[in-house]
Amino acid sequence: METLLANWMVLPAGLVVTVEVALASIVVGTPLGLLIGLGLAYGTWVVRLPLRLYVDLMRGLPLLVTIFAIFYGPTAFGIAIPSLPSVALALGLFMAAHMAEITRGAVSAIPGEQMEAARSIGLGFWESLKSVILPQAVRQAGPPWTNLCIEIVKGTSLVSLVGVADLLLSARHVIERTREPLFFYFMIGLIYFVINFGISRFGAYLERRFTYAR
User: Fold this and answer.
1) Into how many domains does the chain fold?
2) Are 132 and 116 in contact (CB under 8 A)?
3) Using one digit for the tens of pLDDT, what is the confidence trace for 76-112?
């Protein structure tokens, strides 16, 4: 037990890295995916074509391949990107592609007459989007966005494969010293559950708020 307690404090440092990567990915992926989704829904074919290629490519690639490509790819051109920004960027780009489809689907579900009605009373395109379309789309996009955030948190466990000292890699180092894999894997599983449960409850709270505001 003393050995376990002595090594326990290694995990919080890894947890901080996991949370940093997840938050950075969500902060990058959410607005970028929103813009891409709007481009898919309202852009001309010249705009939609490259956006569609990007979304289909990123959604079709395994997340681990994306992490490896962003982490190792720039080195082929003599560019060194620190590990944390590179894995956060990889996860952010992955999230943006999925967020784009969520946004496109939510916006497309709004009847076209609503945009026409907003334009008919003198609102411009962006004003109509901000005041009429997006408030309704957010209510529909909320639950899948919450699920996507949970998937991103779980996806952070892959960054340990490129040497980032996240929660999982920190636990592995402790396990090598203590030879107690069951205890520490149980603990990191519990930590991931608590984080994702908190995200799901937060998403449910936001959904209720937007529903009451309707």
Assistant:
1) 1
2) no
3) 888 878 888 999 999 999 999 999 999 999 888 888 7
